[in-house]
Amino acid sequence: MLVTLKQIAEELGISITTVSKALKEYPDVSKKTRKLVRETAAMLNYKPNSFAVNLRTKESKTIGLIIPEIVHHFFSSVIKGIISQAEKKGYLVITLQSNESYELEKKQIDLLISKRVDGILISLANGTADYKHISEVLNQETPLVMFDKIAKAIKCSKVTIDDRKAAYKATQYLIDIGCKRIAHFRGPLLPQNSIDRFLGYKQALTDNNIIYDPTLVYLLNKMSFDEGKFYANQLLKDHNDVDGIFINTDLVAIGAISEFNNQGIKVPEQINVIGFSNWFMASVISPSLTTINQPGFEIGKKAFKLLYKEIKDRKKKKIINYKNIVLETDLIVRESTV
Amino acid sequence: MLVTLKQIAEELGISITTVSKALKEYPDVSKKTRKLVRETAAMLNYKPNSFAVNLRTKESKTIGLIIPEIVHHFFSSVIKGIISQAEKKGYLVITLQSNESYELEKKQIDLLISKRVDGILISLANGTADYKHISEVLNQETPLVMFDKIAKAIKCSKVTIDDRKAAYKATQYLIDIGCKRIAHFRGPLLPQNSIDRFLGYKQALTDNNIIYDPTLVYLLNKMSFDEGKFYANQLLKDHNDVDGIFINTDLVAIGAISEFNNQGIKVPEQINVIGFSNWFMASVISPSLTTINQPGFEIGKKAFKLLYKEIKDRKKKKIINYKNIVLETDLIVRESTV
C-alpha cells in the first residue's frame, strides 16, 4: 500500500502538518525534526502524491500524442523521438491512435483535455477535414503542435518535411535516368502531404516539358501492401508503356514491386520504382527500394521541443510565436532504379 | 483558458459551493438552478478538473507500459493491442522505453509509481537480472502484469507464448524436411524467451537422435539485421555443411538471408532458414521467410485484460489469483524452407 503523510505522522507521533512542512523543508520546523521526517519517509518508501502535486502546480507533466497508426515504421520512429526527448525534460507521453478516423480523433482530443495534459502533439487522420476540435484546443490555450499530417489553415506550430520538394526531387530523378512515361500512386485526397507529393510530381513533369497525363495517376485509399499489388496489376493492364513510378509511400511501393516480381516484370530494367519515407523494409527487399528519406525520429524530437517551449512560454505569460519547422529530406538511391 | 467553477459561479452570481453541488446533481440545489448551472457549464465549455477527480477517487485511470524498444514490429503490435483494449475501458496508456537497459527500466518504474498509475505492464529489458524493482511494485500492491520477456521467479500475472514448444516445432520442421546439420542463432543469455527457444531447439535435436553440437549455436547480443549478416558470414566460414538454421528473431533471419543472397548461397536449396515472430517484413522479402507467428496484438490485449481485472479486484479487496496465460503459436511456411 502506498504510504501517506498520515502514516509518517503516526509513526513519529507528530501532526500531519508538521510532516508536510518538514518534507517541504519549511524553516519553522526544527532541523532535527526535518531530518527525522525525511529519514522516516525514506524508510517507509514514501512517494509524494502526484495528483496532489498536480493540483498545486497546475501541471501534469504529461503530454498527449495522437497518431493515425502505431504499427507503422514511420510513426513508431516519431513516437521514439518524442518519448526520448520528453524523458529528458521529465514529461510522460500518453499515446492514442486515431485509426485515420476523424470521429475517433475528436474523442481522443476530448479525453486528453479532460485529463488536463500540458500539451498535445498530433498527426491528423486522413479522415479529418474539419478542424474545429483542434481550434477548440488552441482557443483554450492548451499548447498543440502538429507534425507530418498537418492542416495548413490552422495557426499553430508545425513540424513537417517539404513534401512537394521531395516529390519533385524523386520525379526529377526518374526523368534524369531517362523515364518518359511516369506514373504516380498517390495518397487520399485529404491529407496535405498526399496533395503536396502529387503537386511535386506534376510540377517536375511540367518543368521538363512532359505532358501531364491524369490517367497515369492512381488514387489509393488504404496505402497498404495489398493496394500496392492491386494497382501495380491495374497499371500493367492500363498502360504497357510506363517506365517509371513515383509512389506515395514505401509500403505501397513494396507491394507494387512484389507484384512486378510475380508477373516477371523486371525492376528497374522495365519499370523504375521510387517510394517515400525510407521504412527499414525498403533496404532489405529485393530489389531494394530507391526512396525519399523521411526523418521520423528527428520529426518527433523537434515536435516535442516546440511543444515544450510553448508550455514554458505560456507559463511565463510570454507571447507565443508559432514556428513552422521544415526538415530536409534526401533521395536514397538503391536497386529499384537503373 | 480552462474554465473553473469560480467563473461559472461569477457568471451566475451564485456561490462556488452551489455550482459544485449543482454539477453533482445534489438535491439540496433546486432543479432550476441545477439546469442553469449545467447549461452555463456547457456554454463555457467547462471540463471537470481530472486531478481533483483523481484525488477523490484515488484512481488515475492511467496505466504505464514499459517496453524494451518502440521501433519494432512485435512491440508496436503489442502496444496497439494494449491501447485498443485500454480505450474500451476508459484507460490511458503512458508508454516508456527501457532500451534493454536495467538501469533505465528501474528509473521508468519509479517514474510510473510516483505518477500513481493504476497499474503497470512490462516486458523486461535484456539487461535485467535483478528483480527487486519489480518486487517493490508488487509489495506496494500496485497491479503489474509481465508479458513476452518475463521473470519466472516473480509471482505476478504473465502473458507469454510457449517459446520452448514453438522453437521445438520450428526445429522439428527443419528435421522433417531433411536437414542434418542445424545451426541456431540464439538471443542473449538473460531473457527467459531466448533461453526457452534455445532449449526447444536442443530438445528437438535430442528427441530425433541428432547429436547436439554447441559450435553450431551462435550467441547474439543486439539481435539486429547487421548481426544477422555478420553471423551468417561467420557460419559459412565455420561450417560448410550446415543445411538449416533456426534463428531467434525475424530481423536477424532477414539479415542472414540477405548475406546468403549476397554470397550466392541459395536459400532454401543450400540452407533452410526459419525465423521467429512473423514480422510483416518476413512476408515481403525474397525468398519470403518461414517463421513462427507470435501474436503481438493478442498478447497486448490479454495483458491489459489481466491488469484491468486485477485493478478492479484489488479495489473490491478480493484475493488476487495470478494468472499465467500462454498463447498458441503456429509455424508459417514460406519460401525460405524447401
From TrEMBL, chains A, B:
Pfam families: LacI, Peripla_BP_1
Keywords, in A-Z order: DNA-binding, Transcription, Transcription regulation
Entry keyword annotation includes Nucleotidyltransferase: no
Domain of life per record: Bacteria
Any GO molecular function: DNA binding
All residue ranges annotated as the HTH lacI-type domain in the record: 3-57
Coiled coil: none
Protein name per the record: LacI family DNA-binding transcriptional regulator
Organism: Polaribacter ponticola
Taxonomic classification: Bacteria, Pseudomonadati, Bacteroidota, Flavobacteriia, Flavobacteriales
